[in-house]
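Protein modeling request. Please complete all fields; requests missing the sequence field cannot be processed.
Requester role: graduate student
Desired output: 3D structure, token encoding
Chains: 1
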Amino acid sequence: MLGLADVETELLSRAPESNVEPGLEGISRLMALLGDPQTSFPSVHLAGTNGKTSTARIIDSILSAFDLRTGRYTSPHLQTVTERIVIDGLPLSDEAFVAAYLDVAPYLGLVDDAIGRRLTFFEVLTAMAFDAFADAPVAAAVVEVGLGGRWDATNVVAAPVAAILPIGLDHQDWLGDTVELIAEEKAGIIAPDQLVVLAQQDLSVAEVVLRRAAEVGATVAREGLEFGVLDRRVAVGGQLLSLRGLAGDYEDLFLPLHGEHQAHNASVAVAAVEAFLGGGRERLDPDVVREGIAHASSPGRLEVLRRSPTVLVDAAHNVAGAQGLAQAVADSFDFERLVGVVGVLADKDAAGILASLEPVLAEVVITRSSSPRALAPERLGELAADVFGADRVTVVPDLVSAVEHAVSQAESHGLAGVGVLVTGSVTLAGDAVRLLRRPDRIPDDEPGS
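Delivered output (449 residues):
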């Protein structure tokens, strides 16, 4: 009998997750053989370069507060692949994940033969998610694009609402080397008669999205015009917000996430839920919105994993994400000395990520994640020396030793106002979460924290 490890092995044997096959033919054929389960529930479909997962989680939390049974599909995962498929706020159990795979498995060979290649890891996982959502059944799905938009496997959903998060440079090999070309790919999720919730963008990006919407007959609500953040104040454990929605204002919202970018993500989330539940024409019950916002979470996004000293982890993996992270650290924390532990994938702008983090880091410990795509620590260390100066850089390839060294360096200047930030890739963030939740590996001076 198949177990979770067996299914994960079979999925990964199809191709490394980083291997992408542009086009919707494969997923469309597979969905048709399964009875098009993705059409049995309405979705909110999210694209963009940064903020998709956090926004998806906030949307899910608000919809759940309105007593809707929800499904959520996001990627990548921090610790286990089951995190990607969530029903009622909980990842699929190992047994349910295996069952979802067994539902789609009989059809995989048929589609492989028909399209002349093997369906990818992501295509099969997407089919499993939609099958699980239909089987539940869910009343609403929150679906995050995996890569791009136009030809992403998720772009077969029935989505009355699309949300386009901030778009920047990332995955240029697949999406194009300008933000305008990338925006064209991501705007490909926009469909006729949709209400599109558009986060703040560079003007050239907004023009691309608006043009696509006009071409297909979709309506666009723009952050800063039709909705937006009215006020935000840093609070213990997060921030207090006042938001303007599509149909009214929502005040005294406590969001337990750090950083101005998360306030904007919450603004997009509220507008998307307004659009989903009432077409953006009716103000939602503010108490229910308040409850949904208050219960939102986003693991691995400026998450505090330890105290004394404070150890943070963040999945920032591109320049825009690193810039937002640096701003959030300065905005939400009062460190006198913060030591970074950084590992970056080889296909990312490592120098740009390091330069974005430099203003908030006293020094940096260079390491690597468990990903086979990780940039060699020696090379990353050379780039870091160019940014920080050699005297502020230490290379420690093993993550356990790297975190231990960073903690020691932080504490060498006293225990007050010091911290460690682990960041640079989603994989590194996941590795750190697993490590730092094992008290036998990294000591914590504050019992019970």
